[in-house]
Specification:
three-stranded antiparallel sheet
Length: 160
């Protein structure tokens, strides 16, 4: 996508606009066979540590919650359960993602889900002036200050 093409605003972007939060929409080339964060980081020309993925989990006590993690990390289910007030948790099934969040795999944003979910952002986000999260569709990322994102979604911090 060339920079001269109009970038369609997503619901996540409109919500940030309404809240007066600064961000940039950054398009990238989608590879349907490789939706991994490392591919997105490569397309953006950014370090993988600044490209965050949005993971939706289900706890045994408190239901759904979200972990926003650097693209090169895997979620530690024991830590995720503990910080979310659960004894155990697991990733939700792919078929549940769209009905529960309004988003699809590779385009799940921590901003603007169908209903607000408890959200935990990995604390390494605070090391950067900006991070990247999905804008809510494949092929578009939001470049945002992590403090602004944390405040906007009411996130807790996922400890290192």
């Amino acid at each position: 996508m060339s920079e001269k093409q109009h970038i369609q605003k997503t619901n996540a972007a409109r919500l940030l606009d309404a809240a007066g939060i600064r961000y940039e929409l950054i398009p990238y080339e989608v590879d349907e066979n490789n939706l991994a964060a490392d591919h997105v980081a490569e397309q953006l020309g950014e370090p993988i540590e600044t490209v965050f993925k949005t993971l939706v989990l289900r706890g045994d006590r408190n239901g759904l919650f979200v972990c926003v993690m650097p693209g090169d990390m895997e979620v530690d289910l024991k830590v995720a359960a503990k910080i979310s007030g659960n004894k155990s948790c697991a990733m939700i099934h792919m078929k549940e993602l769209l009905p529960e969040t309004g988003y699809i795999r590779g385009g799940c944003s921590p901003i603007g889900m169908k209903k607000p979910l408890p959200t935990f952002i990995f604390e390494s986000a605070l090391l950067y002036d900006h991070i990247y999260v999905s804008a809510g569709i494949r092929g578009l990322q939001i470049k945002i200050n992590p403090d602004d994102l944390i405040r906007f979604v009411g996130a807790g911090i996922y400890p290192i």
